[in-house]
Design brief:
The structure is a single chain. The strands form 5 sheets. Strands 1, 2, 3, 6, 7, 8, 10 and 11 form an 8-stranded mixed β-sheet that branches. A 5-stranded antiparallel β-sheet has the order 15-16-17-19-18. Strands 4-5 form a two-stranded antiparallel ribbon. It is built from 13 helices and 19 strands. It is globular and about 70 Å long. It has helices at 9-16, 28-47, 73-86, 94-99, 120-124, 126-153, 164-168, 185-188, 218-233, 316-335, 339-342, 399-406, 410-419, and strands at residues 20-25, 60-61, 68-71, 108-110, 116-118, 158-163, 193-199, 202-214, 235-237, 245-251, 259-265, 294-296, 305-307, 309-311, 368-372, 375-386, 389-398, 435-438, 443-449. A hairpin with a 5-residue loop joins β4 (108-110) and β5. The chain has one domain (20-449). It starts with 8 loop residues before the first helix and ends with a strand.
Amino acid sequence: MNKDESKAVSEILHELSKTSHVQVRSSTELAAHVSEAAEDEDVTRTDKGQGPLRRRTDYRAVRNAPRSLTLTPWQIIHAIGLGAASARQGAGRGLAEHWGSLRYNQAMEGNQGDYLQLSSEGRDLLRFYKATQSGEIGTGFASLLGEKLVRSRYPDHSVSVIPADVALKAGWTLRSTSGTGARPEPLQRRPHFFVEAWKPGQPSKVILVSSKGTHSSVHQVHKQLSTASAHVESVHIGPYGTVPYLLIGTEIPKKESLALHIVEAPGTTVLRPPGEASEADLDLALDQGNRMADVVRHPERLGATVPGFQVLPEDFDWFSIVLARTEAATLTAFTGGGKPTAQYLTKEQGRRHFQHDVHADTDRLRDAEHRIHGIDFLGTDHIYRLNGTRVEAFSGLERNLYMHLHDGRVNEYRREVHDLRGQWPDRSTSEQWSAVSIRADGTVMAIRLRED
């Protein structure tokens, strides 16, 4: 181990709990630059005979945007891991991919001004998986920023960040059914998250989020956000082009502090079905849907549809159930996956991949229980080596909330976790753990040296 790698593991874990800031930038100028980048891209595509992309172009600067996010590196790792837990990329690998977030334990640090930047370790890793690192870190920051913005606008609601691909698979087949030829571009480009503001007994409010990340210049951020405007165009909830969205780009320079660039299409989409419908039963298991991937662009023109995914008002109850049960799958996958996760997923969402407790690098699932800040959490731990030293990481859910989801009680989970809003401790360390992150959904992620 050379000098650059000799940093004591205890110091590395301490860095994970240190609070830093990340700049947030949103302006009319940013929106104009994104529009210019979109025009340039469409000119290039036209020259190649591809034609312009379908995009949402109604974005603008974010109203009341925060000037910065204040967080710890461990909170970002928690967000990355939570997002990866249910969005598995292969059979039975959901939990193993969740633990892949630990690769960022040494990737970020605060500078002298307490602004977050890549560490020397993070810069060295660019050689090996530059695109993966920028995408995963960008996704983590986007989920945290999107959640913060929506929470500030609906302070009496709970807020959930739900992977869009997993949710959409409950109603549509996202892959080619014939196995030949590419699907139309609007079906290939999709938003990354649904951010749902919800309150028991009331219809949810939904916002789309598309995220990007780059190690390049701010000019590349503009190009990425212009592409992101095509990702949000593929999904419509209610009438065409009315669902609000956020486009978030994370700039990850090699030596300067990180920055988040964001524009939005403001508005409100409420999942209120027509008529006097009762509250959707979130405990209701869903059958796999096989919907046409068509969007009604002009209702007054018979048959005027374009490729895409649309949820019409008569399906708002169904979509409310999809969002809640996809979140439940994400939370149970984060705690250990297996059958508790499989019950919330349809065939296309990957139910069979979670029906058996077989995960790479994990021998025992959902058998770890720890009391952190006076709260009992149930989940799974992972023992691994960091610079040759044994380290223990734990991911779990508050015990009562976990039992609700384990037994299929999504309605009860949501009622109880909503009542707990604002009561979760925000301390980033504890007596027994070097770094701790507890989220409003009741999940915890913690890490410490393993003393054998």
